[in-house]
Amino acid sequence: MILLLTKAEQVLSFGLPSVDQAFSGFRTGDFAVLYGHPFCKTLLFTLSIRCQLPKEQKGFVSTAIYIDGGNTFNPYAISASAQQHNLDPRSALERIFVSRAFTAYQLSTFIFKALENALKHYRSKLILIADITALFLDSDVPAKEALNIFEKAVVYLSELATQRNVIVVASCFPHDCSKRRFALESTLLRLAGSVIKIEETKGKMLFKLETSPTLKPFAVDVLPSGATLEQFLEA
Fold it and tell me: What CATH number has the domain spanning 11-234?
């Protein structure tokens, strides 16, 4: 099935041949979730670089807003990705605007009160929220309050993506096995428009599309044919 894009709609792909053949990418207006494996961090870094590419290379010529909820931001990994995409690492890093949160309250305050203004100021088409559930697992935040704030934040992000015609991608990693973690993840996956699980099994890294407004679920090997997981992670 070929999907036609409107003039205002743009697509941001991962730049991974095996994945891009099955999944063309995120469209402006999407709220998506990557979860399951730490490799999600690498994918967020890749998206933060690819959105900066010129349009003829399927980029947005855009800055990115990176909201770091789990202390995941890695300038060295991002610089390496920039070099792979023939961008100047320093310039690429300067076009990624990072906001670090250390509590659930800081994270939610930035989302509700500062994010939309940041979008306008930096003219960004991509918002990345790294490890979005982590801070809401803090025992200092009452469970009921954490779940209430988290759900409102996720709904807000979904609506912001549509209203501002931007892409919002959140990552979520396994932490403890508590009821709170299950409730948070269930809320996140239920409200997301697209859900992608990254899973490592038998030496393979799988990209599994679980939910999409346009595609049926599928799974594809992230690695190029003949490559090993170790080689791919070292690249």
Answer: 3.40.50.300
